[in-house]
Each structure stands twice: as C-alpha cells, then as structure tokens.
C-alpha cells in the first residue's frame, strides 16, 4: 500500500487496467471491431502487404487518397476512413510510418501512442492493428509487437488521480492481427514483454506525478513492498537509526531539515544466484520534495520539485519488470529517500558532514543535496560487492542547458559499461549522450576545510556533480545518468505524455536484459 493516510495500493493510472492487448491470427478485414489500423510509408504510391488487402476490400480508397495527397505517409499522420459497410470494421485508420530508411522500433512506439489517443478521442472501444514494421519495415516480429504494446500503453497514459472528473477511457481492447499463424507466438511474447515494461514505466510516471504529500519516503517503501510481495525479491529498508549505525552522515545531513523520516530502500533480485559476481546495481536519488534547504529555491516552479525523486522511482519501478521477465543476472536496486527542507535543524552552508566511506564533505550549498544522498547510497553499493553501478538522478539544472529536454547526460569511469547503457537507451528510444569526466574537473570541487565540497561553481556544473558521485564508486564500473531535463515533458507527443516521462526506466530494463544475455 501507499501510506495509511491515503490508503491507496500502487497501480498504474494509465489505461492498462481496463485496456486488454492481445494477438489473433486471421484476416484484418474480417474482424468484429470498431476500427482497424493499417499503415503506409512516406512516398509510397501503392500500398503493400495487409494495407494492400484492405485497400482492395474498400474499393481502392487508400490509393485514391494517396493520389490526391491526403495520405502522404508522413510520420504521425493519421487518416480515418469510414468503410460504409464494405467490410466488417466500420472504420479504417491509415497511419503514416514516415520514410522507410528512418523507420525503427521507436517509430512503432511513437505511432502506436498517437493511434491510441486518436481513436480514444473518437470514442472507439475496440480496434485491431497490423504489425507495424513486421513486413517491409524489417523489424523482428517480437520486437515490433513489444514496441506496439509499449507505445499503446504509454501513449494512453494520463495521470488524473486527484481530479474529481476523470478523463473518459473508451478503448477496451487492442488486437494485433496476423495472417501468418507461425508468427502468433512471437507476437504474443513481444506483447507480454511490452506490457510488463510499459506498466513499470507507468508506475514510475505515477510516482513522479504524485504530489509530495502523497509520495513520501515511506510511500516509496510501500510501493517497493508491493513489488516484492509474492516474489523471491529480498527487500530491506534502513531507517534513520540504521543509517546512523552505518555512518551515512551525508544522507542524514540532508534529512535533518525535515520532520519526515528518511528511508533507504534495498531490493535484491537473484537471477543468477550461482554466480554472485554477475551483478549490477541500480541506484536512485529519492528526494521526495526539494525546497533547496537553507539555500532555498525561488518559489516560482518549486512545486515541480515533487519530482526530484524520479531517480528512485526509476530504479524501484524497473524492478517490477525485472521480477516478471526474470533475466539471468543479479540486480540490486537502492533508493536513497528523504525530503530536503529548511527546518530548524537543517544543515547549513559551510557545515561539514562525513559520508559512509569516511570522506569528509563541505556543504557549500544545501541545494546540491542529491549528490550527498547518492554518495552514501553508492558507498553502500560498493560495500555490497556490486561489480557495476548505474545511478540515476535529477541532479542538475545545468544538464538542460547543455542537452535540452531531448537527451539524458551520461558520465562514467568505464567505457564498456557506458557504451552498454547508451546502446540500451538506443534500443529503448531514450537518447543518451556521454559527457567528459577529465581529472582536471576535480580541482573545481576540492575543499579548503574538508576532502571535498558539494558544488564546483558555475563551470561544468553537471560534470562536477556527476564526478562528485563517482568519487564514491571507487574502482567499480560506474555510470551516472542525469535525468533532470528528461524526467518530465511539457507536452504530449508519441508515447510521451505531458508530465512525468518515466525515463530512463526502459533503458534500465533493456540494459539488464542485454547484460543477462551477454
């Protein structure tokens, strides 16, 4: 459950709970549904494959619309045709796939997200779709099916938990129809994977979209508990007393300003118990509200700081899919959760705290708190014997200046691991770019009174923040993902909806799956 105060069990609040995805062998023109979905590539003069069959059945209407320029096949273009009883489905939706040379699995996700919103707005209850990319698109069958499931579920997502009047969901069933019966099992497997992955992303979106009074450190614990219940995943939760025993002074320093108790959440999945070194740690920043502390933020836009726990939300929700997909690798998720508030006991600029590994830190700015909580979380991960660590944090505003809202910044001490993370992001359609971690930058966060200080000045803010965390990874292969600019979106497009994006949940899941096969 979430906290007793709210009495809510975790769930996705997108359309997954009411919308069923399935696969069926057969002729798409014979389906008893409100609409069918076919597609065309940009620049095509004659439809191919299943679209060609549908075009013939509805007396070449699609060809006519191509000739008049109404259907051009541009990416995201949607054209609705009423069939006038020429076939069983009442409507045909023609989806543009864009140029064939640029088409990939992320195109499928984006198109599927646009389709589900378009048809829901038309009050459609059931629709069937061809397997986008499974033919001339050249995408493997299971991958195309997984992409449709991801795009459909995430495109339909809308957070309305606290609205008295909910947005109406009309779509009840989406069916992928395939003529070739030999492909049905692969499609079903892809859909099942996509549903599992997308539901984890939806959960992360829910967690980030929740107001801070509904998503405290204790609420994060309750969600992690729900994920672990009924599975073999081991859950351990450190309270303030346990953190004091472990000498987690950096995390506790941040927590001092709030009356809300901090928590450290550790979830352990053993997918390869006989090989304990075959492991990876996913570590997330969980600042459930960030006022900035004594170095308080401006009031304008401070409400968005409820989302400063997006890193923790990412690693916790990723474990949901990992427990379901059961990769052959050991995965430990660690979420360091607290509020950062300016209470009477709050740490002050100039204070010195001692991290778990004994490093002394001058707190030059209390609003650079994420790297403090992560220093203890990463130190604990190293103590556990993790061989690879990926930490995720809404760490710096500077990353948006550098990369905009498009790309997540990556920083690393290990070329192989960062390459694997970037490759996973490419498969997930989540753009990641590596920035440098040259030794010269260390000079910027040296302290005159302690081993380190928690800010490095105006220069290279994202780099020094990341490298500060990297100091605590020691010799362990480490990647830091700064999602401060990509964890939310100001608009809806494709499978991204306004508000929390759930980035980089799919990257983390794809990474774990890839490493388990390596």
Could you give the topology of this structure?
Blueprint: E1 20-25, E2 35-40, H1 49-57, H2 61-68, E3 78-82, E4 91-96, H3 105-121, E5 126-129, H4 141-156, E6 173-178, H5 184-209, H6 217-228, E7 234-238, H7 240-245, H8 249-255, E8 263-270, E9 279-290, H9 310-325, E10 330-340, E11 352-354, E12 360-362, H10 370-384, E13 388-393, H11 398-403, E14 408-412, H12 415-428, E15 432-434, E16 452-453, H13 461-470, E17 477-482, E18 488-489, E19 499-500, H14 505-517
Parallel strand pairs: 1-6, 2-4, 2-5, 5-6, 9-10, 9-13, 12-16, 13-17, 14-15
Antiparallel strand pairs: 3-4, 7-8, 8-10, 11-12, 14-17, 18-19
Please give a structural write-up:
The chain has 518 residues and is an alpha/beta fold. It is 34% helix and 19% strand. It has 14 helices and 19 strands. The strands form four sheets. The protein has an eight-stranded mixed beta sheet, with helices on both faces. Strands 1-6-5-2-4-3 form a six-stranded mixed beta sheet, with helices on both faces. β14 (408-412), α12 (415-428) and β15 (432-434) form a beta-alpha-beta unit. α12 packs across α14 (505-517). The model is unreliable at 1-8 (pLDDT under 50).
């Amino acid at each position: 459950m979430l906290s007793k105060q709210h009495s809510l069990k975790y769930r996705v609040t997108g359309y997954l709970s009411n919308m069923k995805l399935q696969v069926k062998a057969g002729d798409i023109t014979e389906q008893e549904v409100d609409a069918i979905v076919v597609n065309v590539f940009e620049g095509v003069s004659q439809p191919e494959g299943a679209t060609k069959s549908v075009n013939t059945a509805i007396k070449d209407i699609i060809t006519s619309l191509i000739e008049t320029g109404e259907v051009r096949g541009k990416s995201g273009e949607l054209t609705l045709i009423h069939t006038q009883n020429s076939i069983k489905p009442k409507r045909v939706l023609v989806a543009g796939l864009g140029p064939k040379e640029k088409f990939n699995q992320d195109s499928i996700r984006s198109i599927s997200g646009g389709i589900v919103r378009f048809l829901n707005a038309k009050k459609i209850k059931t629709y069937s779709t061809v397997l986008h990319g499974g033919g001339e698109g050249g995408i493997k069958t299971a991958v195309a099916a997984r992409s449709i499931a991801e795009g459909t579920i995430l495109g339909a997502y809308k957070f309305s938990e606290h609205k008295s009047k909910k947005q109406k969901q009309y779509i009840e069933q989406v069916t992928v129809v395939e003529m070739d019966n030999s492909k049905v099992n692969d499609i079903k497997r892809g859909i099942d994977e996509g549903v599992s992955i997308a539901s984890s992303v939806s959960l992360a979106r829910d967690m980030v979209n929740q107001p801070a009074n509904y998503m405290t450190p204790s609420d994060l614990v309750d969600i992690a508990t729900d994920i672990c219940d009924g599975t073999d995943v081991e859950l351990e939760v450190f309270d303030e007393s346990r953190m004091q025993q472990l000498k987690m002074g950096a995390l506790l320093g941040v927590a001092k300003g709030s009356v809300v108790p901090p928590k450290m959440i550790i979830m352990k999945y053993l997918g390869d118990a006989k090989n304990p070194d075959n492991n990876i740690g996913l570590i997330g920043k969980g600042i459930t509200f960030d006022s900035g502390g004594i170095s308080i933020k401006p009031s304008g836009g401070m409400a968005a700081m409820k989302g400063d726990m997006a890193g923790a939300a990412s690693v916790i929700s990723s474990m949901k899919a990992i427990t379901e997909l059961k990769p052959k690798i050991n995965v430990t998720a660690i979420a360091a959760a607290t509020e950062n508030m300016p209470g009477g006991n709050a740490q002050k600029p100039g204070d010195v705290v001692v991290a778990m590994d004994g490093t002394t830190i001058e707190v030059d700015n209390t609003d650079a708190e994420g790297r403090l909580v992560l220093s203890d979380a990463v130190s604990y991960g190293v103590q556990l014997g993790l061989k690879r660590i990926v930490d995720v944090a809404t760490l710096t505003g500077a990353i948006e200046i550098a990369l905009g809202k498009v790309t997540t910044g990556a920083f690393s001490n290990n070329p192989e691991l960062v390459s694997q993370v970037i490759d996973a992001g490419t498969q997930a359609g989540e753009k990641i770019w590596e920035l440098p971690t040259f030794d010269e930058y260390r000079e910027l966060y040296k302290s005159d009174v302690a081993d380190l200080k928690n800010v490095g000045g105006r220069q290279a803010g994202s780099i020094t923040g990341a490298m500060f965390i990297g100091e605590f990874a020691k010799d362990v292969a480490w990647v830091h993902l700064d999602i401060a600019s990509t964890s939310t979106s100001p608009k809806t497009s494709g499978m991204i909806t306004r508000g929390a994006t759930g980035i980089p949940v799919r990257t983390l899941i794809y990474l774990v799956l890839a490493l388990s096969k390596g």
